[in-house]
Amino acid sequence: MASHSLHQEWGQRVRRLLPSFDASIQRSADGNGATMKKIDVYKGWCKKCGICVAFCPKKVLTADKDGFPVAAHSESCTGCRWCEFHCPDFAVVVTPDKHSTEDNDD
Prior knowledge:
The chain has 106 residues and is of the alpha+beta class.
């Protein structure tokens, strides 16, 4: 539990230093009309640092009982791929859900 609050505090500090962070996330969400995203976490590569959990702008990721990130609220994912781009272990991959892209190809 203590590490979760530490990650939240760290996230708040970085957001104060990067005021354009939330604006860039909003542009990403609005720019491509994204719907549902699939978020894969490769546990063999993940060191459970919590960066992806702490900084997800929509709080899509949470830590499971072992500390690994899981997509608890994937329906809220905007597809900004912040978690994927900032994972130091390349353990997170965000891809469009096949059913969502088929619906958008009309």
